[in-house]
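The records we work with from here on pair a chain with its fold. A complete example follows; check for yourself that the lines match position by position.
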Amino acid sequence: MDKHERAVQLEEAVAHLSRVVDDLSEVVARQEREIARLSRRVGLLMEREAEREAEGGTIPLADQRPPHW
């Protein structure tokens, strides 16, 4: 293998790796947006549940016994 063929192989490898890095960067950015969105929703749900518990004073549904017990 001469220097020219080796240089072509290295350029192809670099191009491939650059594409993979770009693709992974897009995935990470999308995941970051999704995590931020889900975190906001969880925060809102927690606030809503805290307000409901403060107002009602009832046993949370998750802690109630099923009707067949």
Remarks:
- Residues 3-56 form the longest helix (54 residues).
- The radius of gyration is 27 Å.
- The chain has a mean pLDDT of 90.
